[in-house]
């Protein structure tokens, strides 16, 4: 009888130990970071979603996104740094609740420059997904939670929520292509293209007037715009600028010495002749081609 009781106690103890070990194996690693654990859980949710919806999705090992192309364009242009991408998108949770979208019906696509996404305007998950698609392609992109996504953490899209994006890439345009599109749209195709990439079109000539020279100070009236028409600067009465000393953007130094006092010109320039990959203030974004209308008032 005593042996039976001892056996029962021993058996019960072994069972408790086994249950404790099983619980430990199911519990999250206490040393695992919360974001890492949630991302692992997101992976499981996404895989279950793919299986349930029979999606032919492939994981991109670099970004961690799952891509299921619904329209493949093998010859489409691949987005590169400095390119402008126009796109439509629909963002929803995996339970089907729509969270955000572009104004597709109004034909107002989202626009982003690769290498210079605007925080608060485009999420990192959408921005990353766009770079995995070519011009003309459409895809379903499934993305685990991204802690940099400032649009998460609310009632509509709680933190640590995986999402689905339905993306359509309308166009991918290099700076050169953007400039060419602008010249055609504005009837400026007669503009001279210099070795630097500057487009220069004299719109009012004074052949008998004095040519502006390096080292002089030129008084210039001007209006500067982005290619979408947004004005970022202007001088109605004219401002004084040193010519050829690097006091102005390279496009201006080049354009000034092609003009005479009293002449007017329109120039269109790539960002390499303007404000480059940094942009300027909040009005001129990085990698922005620009256009100026300018008039030389005087030079001395």
From TrEMBL:
Residues 82-173, 215-300 form the PPIase FKBP-type domain. Keywords: Isomerase, Rotamase, Signal. Transmembrane segments: none annotated. It holds the Pfam family FKBP_C. It catalyses: [protein]-peptidylproline (omega=180) = [protein]-peptidylproline (omega=0). GO terms for cellular component: cytoplasm. It comes from the Bacteria. The keyword Signal applies. Its EC number is 5.2.1.8. Residues 1-27 form the signal peptide. GO terms for molecular function: peptidyl-prolyl cis-trans isomerase activity. SUPFAM superfamilies: FKBP-like (SSF54534). The keyword Signal applies. PANTHER family: FK506-BINDING PROTEIN 59-RELATED (PTHR10516:SF443), PEPTIDYL-PROLYL CIS-TRANS ISOMERASE (PTHR10516). Belongs to the FKBP-type PPIase family. This is Peptidyl-prolyl cis-trans isomerase. It comes from Larkinella rosea. The lineage of its organism: Bacteria, Pseudomonadati, Bacteroidota, Cytophagia, Cytophagales.
